[in-house]
Specification:
heterodimer; A: alpha+beta; eleven-stranded mixed beta sheet; seven-stranded mixed beta sheet; about 50% helix; B: about 100 residues; mainly alpha; three-stranded antiparallel beta sheet; 4 helices; about 60% helix
Chain lengths: ~900, ~100
């Protein structure tokens, strides 16, 4: 077996060298192998193969040099080039110069081929730029591969399978662990920062001392948070993020030591973080985020409250020699001890996940799929360019034959043709790189900014190298076949003028094979595009429980100095509501602690019976605080009972509205109208009193709060009392349902709201549909890009098919002329050509459909609401392909039909 | 001089050999550490012959008892000199290095 391969490989050697040495080389090879078995035999075989492959190149170079030396010594033809490397370079340059001259004469051909390749290279580079930035670049931390993020899961119905822990968990892990070298934790909140007239809602990070150092960062200016800052009684300090420092303080170093009010409390600015510092997290991390200001968490070291309260995201760094697997084993051991501390933790499961994996997990399959798709499109583009070059190879046949006749070697012609494709691919690479820069912008416009790590996407050195690599690959893919074909074996026949006498069978078959490949890939891409489009439409047509358009939303910060208590804020909002509802464009106005699809949120535990009361924490719900009229304004459906009324906003009213899922869970089988008036325990107590209960006054249809398609937890809605920071005491969101067009409304709101008083700051004014669009960004990006790739592949395949048939008709003009002269019907001639084209299409479409089904089945996890073998998609893809294919066949077929016998026979 | 070429010439210093003989001889003289791969071997032999360091024996020079299938090679005067020069160069070099090691 091994020696057989060796014998085959020997054919790669220059013919003369092989003739002289092959027999003895085999003998030596056999001798070298004879004493060896097992592994040694394998390595020897590899050595033998490599040896032949290397010699196939070096012997050619050596032979060329020798023959030239011989020629010059024997006074033969003058050497045209130097020897050695200089000779090689000057030879290449000559090839390049010649190719440029040749291409200049055929501008049309050069332009089309370059554009086809640029399309493939540009698209591939665009997607690679994203893949590189998001998946390949490491996170910008010290030894980022050692950093893991901790997940705690509490069990079904708790809603806790999140990267959230309690500080006590971190303290325990730190004390017990040997596999983890270091841990740290942090959380965050949206809080009002500033005072009096100048307030703003900011994301405030609350982190443990040493948090930044854990990631390998020190302050750019001043210092970060020290352990002495991180105690309950420590004086409050704050560290500014670099953007906040620049945007809010003009980058002025004298801010150090100044005070800034956060939630009405003075914090001394002690440091500025470096520009590069940012924290990237999985979307499930609800509280910690890329904060604008960082303050110490100041958790009491003696804190021993329930560990069910989890708002901190914890990170761990592996000890030397530890792995994520060994850390996980240890974690399993440690959680066993934590489970005993609280009945609600009986099902606690902890996981440690490499941070990078966790951040990109949501987009990784999608990006890889797009990368594969764009790679396929590149192959189609290359096949197309190869087809164009092959067609040109035919017209160049005479020129190449002449060169051969004049003494150009096989290798020389081979490289001349390859040089041409290299030049074309080089130009295409430049164009492709330029279009990738634009392409990344376009992908950004589709909403890529809402995907993780998009800030790391840039056209950097890696991408540049990739572009060069892809261009080379394209040149080889597109040029190798034509180059191999172009080396003439029968130059005499070509020069003798046998051209045009009949189809060049080999070349035609090759070009047909290329078209088959193009069509197969195109079918796969079209089906993919169709499935993703259907999938996207499915996500759009899911009813999330609220209206996704027709309203504007904004956030409102109220200055704590101007609006000191709940009463003041409540009456401000009720006035604002009246004022806005009097605008002609406005139908209704409502406030909510946090909008749907706006990320982090509050979860509240509850009990429905004796058992859940004992195992407090085993039932959890998403909690939102809302003003009267919220459901109407959001377009939600009230199933029973009533909305809140202004009187419910008073602090002591213990009323809630629950969703139908919670109603079903808490009161199974009870009609919704009878659920109204029942009570639900909402705070922890084994022997509950009335103050631990809320009375249900309404039941609303469930709303998907965290994503458009995932239902999430059961829900409770309580009256927004404007006191306490969850309940709108600090800031809240406002929804305005419009009567008509939104742009006029936006202008009106921007004018009206700040004018309602000093100490009022309006932020993040946008149509609610923008938040909806962000939530479906990845589905939209994938389907739009896939449609683009599919359409491009279809166009390329159509051109390819047209080219092949046109070529055949040209080749067979004489034959067709004879057929017509002998009385064959012209319609039959047309059918003959059509049949040839459609046979190709039918075969390759069938193959493509099978391939598509196999691929779709593998990738079905990224589909939503559509089967991977959705018949409609497959029918439409086939239909689209066949229609364009018929069109591509029609033109050449018509040309064949119109062949004039006299002309055809005089083609010579 | 490249190691391959040196060892091929060295193998031929004592006796005329065919390709496989050279491979075996080189394996011996390097304690099995230098394996001459076939394509490299015949490539080098052709190059060395062309440069006049060795020559292929004519049929009538080949010892009678071996098959005529195999080509035998013999060092030329030029090859012998080049080999001696190289060996001398290596000896001098080795002496210098050893001396340095002594002094250190």
């Amino acid at each position: 077996m091994g020696l057989l391969t060796y014998r085959l490989l020997l054919r790669l050697l220059p013919k003369a060298f092989r003739a002289r040495n092959a027999t003895e080389m085999q003998e030596v090879a056999e001798a070298l192998l004879a004493e060896r078995s097992g592994w040694a035999r394998v390595t020897t075989l590899i050595g033998l193969y490599v040896d032949v492959l290397a010699a196939s190149v070096t012997e050619r170079i050596a032979r060329r040099r020798r023959s030239r030396l011989a020629r010059s010594e024997s006074g033969g033809p003058r050497r045209l080039r130097g020897s050695g490397l200089r000779g090689l370079i000057s030879g290449v340059l000559q090839d390049v110069r010649f190719s440029i001259r040749a291409l200049r004469r055929r501008v049309g051909f050069a332009t089309v081929t370059t554009l086809v390749l640029a399309l493939g290279i540009g698209a591939t580079t665009t997607i690679f730029t994203i893949v590189n930035g998001v998946l390949l670049e490491p996170l910008p931390y010290e030894s980022p591969e050692e950093i893991g993020i901790l997940w705690h899961a509490f069990g079904e119905h708790t809603g806790q399978d999140l990267p959230l822990v309690n500080p006590q968990d971190v303290w325990d892990y730190r004390a017990w662990s040997t596999e983890l070298a270091d841990l740290t934790y942090g959380s965050g909140r949206e809080w009002v920062v500033g005072e009096r007239q100048d307030v703003r809602i900011m994301h405030v990070g609350r982190v443990e001392a040493g948090f930044f150092e854990f990631f390998g960062y020190a302050a750019a200016l001043g210092r970060t948070i020290l352990p002495s800052d991180d105690l309950p009684e420590s004086p409050p300090v704050a560290v500014l993020s670099h953007p906040t420092w620049v945007d809010r303080f003009g980058g002025d170093p004298s801010v150090m030591g100044r005070f800034i009010k956060i939630r009405g409390e003075e914090h001394r600015i002690i440091g500025i973080l470096p520009r590069e510092f940012r924290i990237d997290l999985p979307s499930e991390s609800r509280f910690l985020g890329n904060a604008e200001i960082w303050i110490p968490a100041r958790v009491d070291p003696d804190y021993d409250g329930t560990r069910l309260y989890t708002i901190y995201t914890a990170f761990a760094r592996l000890a030397p020699d530890a792995t994520f697997a060994s850390a996980q084993d240890e974690l399993d051991e440690m959680t066993r001890r934590i489970r005993r501390t609280d009945p609600g933790l009986a099902e606690l499961r902890a996981r440690i996940v490499p941070l990078k994996d966790d951040v990109v997990k949501a987009v990784e399959p999608l990006l890889l799929l797009l990368f594969a798709a764009v790679g396929l499109m590149l192959v189609v583009a290359c096949a197309n360019a190869a087809n164009l070059l092959l067609g040109r190879g035919h017209t160049r046949g005479w020129e190449l034959a002449m060169r051969t006749a004049l003494g150009a070697g096989r290798r020389r012609v081979f490289f001349l043709v390859l040089t041409e494709s290299l030049l074309l691919a080089g130009a295409a690479g430049v164009l492709g790189a330029a279009s990738a820069v634009v392409g990344i912008r376009v992908v950004g416009l589709l909403g890529a900014d809402s995907l993780p790590l998009t800030h790391a996407i840039s056209f950097d050195g890696d991408v540049f190298l990739f572009t060069i690599g892809v261009s080379l690959l394209a040149a080889i893919l597109a040029g190798l076949v034509p180059a191999a074909r172009a080396t003439p074996g029968h130059s005499a026949a070509v020069l003798a003028g046998s051209r045009g006498s009949g189809p060049d069978r080999g070349s035609a078959r090759l070009r047909s094979a290329l078209v088959v490949m193009e069509v197969v890939i195109t079918v796969v891409l079209l089906v993919g595009a169709g499935l993703l489009m259907r999938s996207f439409r499915a996500t759009q047509s899911v009813d999330p429980g609220y209206a996704t358009s027709g309203s504007m939303t904004f956030r409102l910060a109220l200055s704590p100095e101007v609006f000191p208590d709940g009463q003041a804020r409540r009456s401000y909002f009720m006035d604002l509501r009246r004022q806005l509802e009097s605008l002609p464009q406005v139908r209704s106005v409502a406030a909510v602690s946090q909008l749907p699809l706006a990320g982090q949120g509050y979860q509240g535990d509850y009990a429905v019976d004796e058992e859940t009361r004992r195992n407090w924490g085993s039932l959890s719900s998403d909690g939102r605080w809302i003003s009267p009229g919220y459901f109407e304004t959001m377009g939600a459906t009230l199933l029973a009972g009533r909305e809140f009324v202004p009187a419910d906003l008073a602090d002591d009213r213990r009323v809630i509205i629950i969703d139908d899922r919670l109603a079903e869970l808490a009161f199974p089988g009870v009609p919704l109208t009878s659920v109204v008036g029942r009570r639900i325990q909402t705070s922890r107590s084994i022997s509950p009193e009335p103050r631990h209960f809320h009375e249900v006054v309404g039941v609303v249809r469930h709303m998907n709060l965290h994503s458009l398609t995932e239902p999430g937890l059961e829900q409770m809605y309580a009256p927004l009392s404007f006191s306490g920071w969850f309940r709108g005491g600090d800031h809240f969101s406002v929804v305005v349902r419009s009567e008509g067009r939104l742009d006029g409304l936006a202008r009106a709101l921007r004018g009206e709201v700040p004018a309602t008083g000093p100490g009022v700051a309006l932020q993040d004014l946008e149509p609610f549909s923008d938040a909806v669009a962000r939530a479906s960004a990845s589905a939209r990006i994938s389907f739009v890009l896939m449609v683009l790739f599919g359409a491009t592949a279809l166009a390329l395949a159509t051109i390819g098919l047209y080219g092949v048939l046109g070529y055949t008709v040209r080749q067979r003009t004489k034959e067709i002329g004879i057929r017509i002269a002998l009385g064959q019907d012209r319609d039959e001639v047309r059918a003959l050509v059509m049949r040839q084209g459609l046979r190709l299409v039918a075969f390759s479409t069938l193959a493509g459909l099978v391939a598509a089904a196999l691929v779709a089945d593998r990738a079905s996890f990224i589909l939503y609401g559509v089967s991977p073998i959705d018949p409609l998609t497959y029918v439409l893809a086939t239909f689209g392909l066949v229609v364009t294919a018929v069109a591509a066949c029609w033109l050449p077929a018509r040309r064949a039909m119109r062949v004039q016998p006299v002309q055809a026979l005089s083609v010579e | 001089m490249k190691a391959n070429r040196f060892h091929i010439l060295a193998a031929l210093a004592e006796e005329d050999l065919h390709g496989l003989g050279i491979v075996r001889n080189v394996l011996d003289q390097t304690d099995g550490s230098l394996r001459l791969w076939p394509a490299t071997l015949y490539g080098s032999l052709e190059a060395l012959a062309e440069e006049g360091f060795l020559r292929e024996l004519k049929d009538d020079e080949v010892p009678r008892d071996v098959s005529a299938q195999r080509r035998y090679y013999r060092l030329t005067r030029k090859g012998r000199e080049a080999l001696r020069d190289e060996a001398n160069r290596m000896t001098t070099l080795a002496a210098v290095v050893l001396e340095r090691l002594e002094r250190a």
